[in-house]
Amino acid sequence: MGEAQVSLKHLFRVFTKPEHKDSKLAQIEQHLSDNIMDFLSQHVVTKKTSLEEIEQDFSLPAVPESPEFVSSHAESLLEKLVAHSVNTYSPTFIGHMTSALPYFHLPLSKLLVGLNQNLVKIETSKAFTPLERQVLGMMHNLIYDRDDSFYKEYLHSARHALGAFCSGGTIANITALWVARNKLLGPQPGFSGVARAGLAAAYRHYDIGNLGVICSKRGHYSLSKAVDALGLGREQLLSLPCPAQTLDPEDALREGKRYQEAGNKVLAIVGIGGTTETGHVDPLDELADVAKELGCWFHVDAAWGGATLFSSNNRSKLNGIAKADSVTIDAHKQMYVPMGAGMAIFKDPEDANAVRHHAQYILREGSKDLGATTLEGSRNGMAMMVYSTLHILGRRGYELIIDQNIEKAQSFAAMIDAHVDFALTTTPTLSLLTYRVCPPQVQEALKIASDADKVRLNQKIDRLVVGVQKAQREAGKSFVSRTRLECPNTNSQAITVFRVVLANPLTTKTDLQNILAEQVEIAKGMRIWKELVKLADQVLRTSASV
After folding, report:
1. Cβ(302)–Cβ(310) under 8 Å?
2. Phi then psi for 411, rounded to 5 degrees?
3. What confidence tens digit (pLDDT) does each residue in 420-447 have?
4. pLDDT digits (tens, 9 = 90+) for 80-90
């Protein structure tokens, strides 16, 4: 093939057309289009490769001096990148909130990249701007169900926004709390507002010691980033214990009153609509009432569980969400859209004006430029992928998938309950659950053990769970994640558990049975299994002799 040349002719070809129809990149594109599962099964290597080994392929800091042929570079990507990527399409990859995607996203993503629209401004996006506004309106309608006249007035209003499209749940949560902060500490006679005067001046003007945000310990780590980025300070994230996995409204009210009586102000209560670790849903209806009593904003982080609203059978699990001032939803989770599609939805179309910005060269006052009310500036047109998926699947299509995910999680929970070597630690509210590998003798011993013995047993179970999870991941046939939780029956002791997310429509009950079988086989081959059984036998004998 020779060497790629540094010439205008060569660069022109790179900008306009492939090297030839049988080039490596063309082959990759064809294989992906024909059967993405087959492509991934052939090119993603399951053998154990350490991160340190992979880092060696990406260790040169200098920019390449000379050009490289596209086909040569594509070969390099297959060997260095694709081979060692994670096969998120696999039906046995059930450890995270990332799943197989509908095939049509592949050609649509090519269209998206080819158009290369920038949603910061109409001059660089045109039709994409009204499309994004419609998508935000669809999500607003899904949550708040306002009448047609409401959307006719606000959907395309230059002076209003029903939400903000962003790269993910973290930016959506920050955006929602940014709006809440600017509204609470807004302009008054003699004060220009926090957006102009800054936080210190706002605290002095409003006679506030600190601003705080209340959530449970199951709240997403992005909330900690939010209070940091907004200048409130991480110590003002009041994350309350939740051994039952949800935020207790009475605890939230008690903490809010205590905080405000100390000269502070609660900025917001954040209810979780599907926690990242267990999939639980906070009592949103009651928390909305608590927020009202405390006089604060009510935000619902439904990045994971928001899609449950598509299901007429299961949407009641999110009762109270329509009382929220703002809601986060991630379309790249249970709406089956590629990464980079988060949304913050506002109940009141006026609220986004609290963060509206203008710049004469790009965001002119009175325009419909989306960048005026979004934290991010330049953004691609990911709303198109959401728009297309909403149309191609429809509400009823989403309902079918969501209902199946929840039913599958319930079936898997029943499998675990029926298996002598496992213990279910949290039952599924949505399509997440947690469990432990735990020999039957150990399960019996935990029922009668002293507090000290329970700690010793749980510590050894933790080691077993960690060992099994690592070995299963490295074997490469299947994957579940792990986390640490406090549960009602562990006396506030945090324990290590397997965490499963059932979102891939391709996952079957046979896949789930095989995952459990593999875990048992791994566990019984580990020394810690024998140590655990021995300790449990000692506890049972001691109890019997008393």
Report:
1. no
2. -65, -40
3. 999 999 999 999 999 999 999 999 999 9
4. 988 888 888 88
